[in-house]
Sequence to fold (991 residues):
Amino acid sequence: MQNRIRNFSIIAHIDHGKSTLADRLLQFTGALSDREMREQFLDKMDLEREKGITIKLQPVRLNYRSRDGQDYILNLIDTPGHVDFTYEVSRSLASCEGALLVVDASQGIEAQTLANVYMAMDLNLEIVGLVNKIDLPGAEPDRVKQEMEDVLGLEKEGILPISAKLGTGIEEVLEAIVKQVPPPKGDENGPLQALIFDSYFDSYKGAISYIRVVNGSVRQGDIIRMMSSGKEFEIYEIGVLSPYMTEVETLSAGEVGYLTAGIKNVKDTRVGDTITLASQPADTALPGYQEVKPMVYCGLYPLENNDFERLRDALDRLKLNDASLFYEPETSDALGFGFRCGFLGLLHLEIIRERLEREYDLSLLATAPSVVYKIVLTDGSEILVQNPAHWPPAQRTERIMEPFVKASIMVPNEYVGTIMELCQDKRGSFITMEYLTSQRVMISYKLPLSEILYDFFDALKSRTRGYASLDYEISGYEVSNLVKMDIMLNGEIVDALSFITHQDRAYYRGRATTEKLRKIIPRQMYEVAIQAAVGSKIIARETVKAMRKDVLAKCYGGDITRKKKLLEKQKEGKKKMKQIGRVEVPKDAFMSVMNIEDE
Amino acid sequence: MAIKNAKLKIKDCNGMGMYIHIPFCIKKCRYCDFYSLPGKNESDLDNYVRALLKEIRIRGEQMPAVQLESIYLGGGTPSMLDGRQLGSIIRACGDNFTIIPGAEISMEANPATLDKAKLAAMEAAGINRLSLGVQSFFDDELALMGRVHDAAAVRETVELIHSRGWENFNLDLIYGLPGQSLKRWWQNLKQALDCKPCHLSLYLLQLEEHTPMGKDAAQGRLQMLDEDEEWRMYNLAMEYLAERGFVHYEISNFCRPGWECRHNLVYWQGREYLGLGAGAVSFVAGSRYMNQPDFKGYTGALISGEQWPIKELERMEGRELMIDALILGLRLCEGIDLAHFQQRFGVDISSEYKGIIVQYMNRGLLNIENGRLSFTKAGYFLSNQVLSQFMD
Fold:
């Protein structure tokens, strides 16, 4: 049985055609009829389709009759491409024996391609190299193959040229999977060990877990035990995704599928946990996953104060589907009750916020994002601060440290100077520069995480006409000269607007922030003073003048209905504001404090 | 000789208003977002008047008992109609409805379209109130707005009006023009007063984005005035006109005592009116209706007689009617009579909306005096802030 199974992922830099390739594989193997086909089939979330990106890993089972006449089961586990979701990629890779590496025939290798390939190599996966988009006018498949051989050590003869868009070379890819990716090697008769590699909450079936059976087998009606908690459940349904949920009687070693067991509490089916049978338990759990630490935090507050419990419930459910999400209740003087949430990056933050708003019908306010600072106090103790509101006063701090990353930036060599300038601006220090080919350079910089979170990637792209790619990993904490900037509205500090900044930038940031807020905060019945302060020192001040005009000059018979609609809209608009003291602040203001372009 | 507006007290009269829309203009003004047809095509005008006469007849058959307190010909540029056409329209109104003796019969006119003969024809038709679209007394401002007349035409027209003994006329002015100074605005007001009108409508320039001036403003070719400056202009008008004996009776309207525009009062007092012509709106029995807004559709439907070119815009009951009346009534400087409201809608506003009222009384925008709720002087220009709070 296992000899006929192949488990593989697709890894690629964002936009190199991963989801399109997955679409073609589904079509070619007949998993989907042409009628059922739609673009980015495996990207189920509206958000994924709108943004054209993959956020969640997604398993699917393909049945393929190879040229050798045998039928094979190919389990594809699709993965996200954005650096924020590297964690999802690692989970998916850990459930596979092989990976398809997709590289764009005109773009060549990019920073994340490298990171993903190294990850796959660390897991001893068989890598099948593909050069995609060979149909495009700018395609240089031979150059890119050479690059893949030089940089990644893949033999260029084995790299397949394909066009996922046109469906060119798809059969060769399937054949390569059958021939090159090794079958799984579990013990079908041993005690059950199945790894939960993802799960989500379905309001009818309860928690649905995606599993990879490593050893043994599991069937409907079995009593399973979660090895981390010891809790036991009876299986209601097991099945495979082909690509729709299809029930099967049993899943054995090497297979990938899903199971439901009426698990109502989302905490009872933790991603990375091992499932075994209560009747014949395994001795040890599978290695599971390294717990990921959030890189960036922000406060999420319901605009309607009584939505707090609904928000908690929504976070609980999302957490099931996204182990990297962290949250705990917090309160803000300005905003009331909410949650401090941790994310892998800003895209992750944005996506979670959008999912909460869309899937759970909440209206949320996000505060300015912050990294986690380490502060040594004068009494020698060390604290972690991920909410600027908890920043200790200057006289109590001995040393402040912030997280740094090692950033790898890959660019055509003519942009080296530009990139170095940008990195210097962002308080970076140069590590190395390496020529991957005569044209492409990998530059490494050490940068404060807080500097690359906000607009670094955009700046990188715009300064290199889109050619630069970025990957980064946390390198550790280092001492920095940081201060907390308070923002005051009419003399009152608004805790949710406070942020941390480097001392040298404080003046500029204070000025830019107050100016930005002046533009965002609409005129109100009273004048609003906006001030930025470090400690007790005010460094910038702006004023939103009192509203003078809000009138329909003309209103008579013909357009009363229309004018009333304007008034209704105006009232609706007020609901998108947060009342802080006497000041109405648009909910976007909190987040936008961070998006301040450097001059 | 024009009939001087009989001084019926506002509350004494309970007739309906009739609005008649004439959607033709010599040229569309650059700030205008009303439906109008440019140019003058004799046969179009004739067809339109034919359709209008038919509508008057049909409406009269439907509601034969209606008593009209006012008739208002607006546009567009109703003064593009000739004497014969005007006469036939007003006559048709009298034939199909009852016009209360002393009713106000108004017509809007562009200064460029009036001459002695036209005025005589208007008098003969029974028009007794004129609303002159002056907008400004300065040629550069008129050019900016794309008006077809110049300041000289305004003076000549006003002279003509006086020479024929008209007393009951209004001037429309627009303020807050890009580049307009407070002094310029004051000069406009002064010249308007020199024309000795009994009514002034002063409209703040508010541009819809799809109008030519709106586009210019959106794309930065025109710089709108700061709202502080706009407020100063409004405030200046309030002070100056009060000093010169004018009564401020609606957010944008001023008159010599007793010369309120009765037609507009019908709107603001939440009373019923019929709207005739393309795109005209009627308010009858709690519903607003709108005639088909385009010229071709409207005339085609009426002349062929195949369909009645009207649709319902909104139907209101109970509370919605009350809010409607509240929003309109508060536009009047005298505000609303709380007891009268309670009687009419069964709602005691002062307790029902206590929170809102107290909040805005504290901020100096609302006032309750002698059983009436009204805006303060400071409140008019911020009235949307308050009115939007009353919306459901």
Observations:
- The domain at 10-268 of chain B is CATH 3.20.20.70 (TIM Barrel).
- The two ends of chain B are 50 Å apart (CA to CA).
